Amino acid sequence: MFDLVCTFFSQAIQVMLGLIYISLGTIVIVHFRRYYKLFTSITGYPFWSGIFFIFSGSLSVAAEKYPNKALVMSSVRMNITSAIMATIGIILYAMEIDINNKRDYSDSEGFFLQSAGTALAVLLLLLTMLELAITVSLAHLGMKAASSDMATTVSPSPVFKQDVSPTEGNPDPPANNNNA
Known about the structure:
Keywords: Membrane, Transmembrane, Transmembrane helix. This is Membrane spanning 4-domains A3. Residues 153-180 are annotated as: Disordered. Helix content is 72%, strand content 0%. By secondary structure, it is mostly helical. It has one domain (2-152).
């Protein structure tokens, strides 16, 4: 049951992180252009990484819902690609934070916008680290499933069916011998 919950939330988080990257990337470009060096936004990282993370999460959901070897391997390849994108993002955000922390503004507006831009970059750096952990773990689970004969081991089915009646195999409860 724990694997099911972790896998489902990992896939949902991948898609949500992709949407967050695209949204925050747009905010950073629109509002912080003047006082904050947009190293990652110039490269387009928030947009193309967001698209990769959304596609990777969606493919993982499809591989869980319709488990066949080709779809599972496609999901693994996409998760590996997303892990590479997350690694690139970690490097880019670390460089952006380093570059912008060396700048000094005397006016309060510049200082505020630089601080807010740095805070967003740190947030995106942490989310990129989370994305890296998720993509690596889902790629590992997918490889494990693809290496077995059945691709259905990517994650357990959300519906647990038992053909056993509730009383079958269960002993009767002990009799209450309370003679009070």
